[in-house]
Amino acid sequence: MFNKLIKLIVVLGLFYQTSVYSKSASFNDFNSRDLSNYFSGIIAFENNDNSDALKFFNASKVLLNKHDAYLKRYAYSLVLENKVAQAINVIKNGNNKSNLDFFDAYILLIADSLKKNNLDQAEKYLNLSLKFQNENRFNLVIFETLRQYLHTFKNKKILINKKNFGNISIINQAFQRCYLKKENTRSSFLNLINNSDGDYSRYIFFYINYLIENNQIEEVKAIADQLEYINSTLLLSQSKSWVENKKFKEFGKIFSCNNHNDIIGEFLFLISNLYSSQDDIEKSNFYLNLSNYLNPKFILNSTLAAENFYLNDEYDKAKKILKKIDKQYEFYYWFRVKKEAQIIIKNKGYNEGINFISSKFSKIKNPNVKMVFDIANFYKNSKNYEKAIEYYTEIISSLSVNSEIKSDLLYRRGGSYERLGNYQKADADLKHSLEINPDDAYVLNYLAYSWLERDYKKDEAMQMLEKAYTLRSNDPYITDSIGWAHYLIKNYNEAEKYIKKAVELMPEDPTVNDHYGDILWKLNRNIQARYFWNYVLKLDDTDEDIKEKINIKIIEGLNNS
């Protein structure tokens, strides 16, 4: 409450003293209730409590055409509450047109014009937004991309003189060619999908969509055959399922290259993803809701909003989004179950979460391999290794000899055996995994670390760790492993070098910090060692058994622990 009061005082000071708001009416013109609601709305808005912010803004609408900053916050809050049409109406009906002079207002008006198929009006609004293109790093991309798309939609041809934004431009080109039904659409999608600069597998869905619209069903089946459920995204897993069940019409129900709103909706979804990757959850949700406004059919995209709310600890909002996901989309419904289980784990603990997902899983008549894989991982994470092994074995026995995912499953099952102390089966699985993929740094790391802990084949283990570190020198877990390996062979100076780097890479990991304390003790830096041990005790993720051991080390020192 004190922090909120401080924020309110600061906001009041700014409004009274800053020239930016000099065009606004005097605060003497407003009654105390309106001001109270408005400032309460600002505080809620700044604290990312958008639902409360909107309630306060709705209660102070008298400011709508009298105070410059009000409209922007109000419209933004409406969009975040998925009331895009209402936000557009507020902007369009504003009496004071100078209040509309901000980038988001023009984006909303462009979306409204596109929705009404008024491309000329959309272009006018875009031109008015030109002065804001350098306001932040994404505005220029949004402005220029919309300019290119509007030119294509209006003139039925691709703009020649245009700015290049790398892979985003490659994506835009593929959709523009698809919209214009160009013969080189196929090559555009293939170039995008096979781009080595990043993961563009999402666009396999749009390529399949394009092929279906052009009745290239055999090619669609060939693409689906190459996909594997376990290592595919939700969208591609769902796509594979639709193809295998000959539900080709499902693709066109949610997207079409012939619809300019669908294309712009997908572009705004891309922008939403970019903001999400930068941890700007509000901006991500803003553009996601705009994307849904233009293409409400693509309800599968709502999983991004659920993920955003989950990452922001807004679990009730995440659950509200998840409830909209219907069972007809089997893979998205399973995502809903997993996310609900994760929320239960956060609120009530792992046992409650695993009971929930196990109950849901047991009610599925024919769970697909993706669901079996996920339930196995849940059991492994909850330390029910016997159950995890059962499900991993079920999947492994169903795989073809040349399956790309077999090595990962062997790694997971081998790790489960190792946790149970069944080292013979653990080693067999992990070595089999390396036979399939000898350069998997994480399998090398796991097997080598296990051997060193058992004082088994130490020379070979060190060689594997050195190889793993060469492959993944900036991975904190592998860095910790090779450092701890040096500790185990009493090479403390070398150990300190690696573990110090691991701490820098992963400063809040209990195990890494505990290891660093042990090494410092061995180097006779006892005060520093106790500092790191004490630090581990304060970390939220420190297990009770680690705390018990550390308490002994702090009192008695490492030699007597």
Describe this structure in words.
The protein is an all-alpha fold and 561 residues long. The chain is 70% helix and 0% strand. It contains 31 helices and no strands. It has helices spanning 2-17, 32-46, 50-58, 68-80, 84-92, 103-115, 119-128, 139-155, 167-179, 185-193, 203-213, 217-226, 234-244, 249-254, 260-277, 281-294, 302-311, 315-322, 330-348, 350-362, 369-381, 385-398, 406-420, 423-436, 441-453, 458-471, 476-488, 492-505, 510-522, 526-538, 544-556. Helix 3 packs across helix 4 (68-80), helix 6 runs antiparallel to helix 7 (119-128) and helix 21 (369-381) packs antiparallel against helix 22. Mean pLDDT is 85; it is low at 1-35 and 59-67.
Q: Please, what is the average pLDDT? A: 85
Radius of gyration: 28 Å
The fraction of residues assigned to DSSP E strands is under 5%
Sequence stretches where pLDDT stays below 50 over 5 or more residues: 1-35, 59-67
Proportion of helical residues: over 70%
Characterize the largest beta sheet: strand count, sense, and whether it forms a barrel. Answer: none
Overall strand count: 0
- Main structural class: mainly alpha
Distance between the termini: 45 Å
The number of helices is: 31
Quaternary organization = single chain
Shape: globular
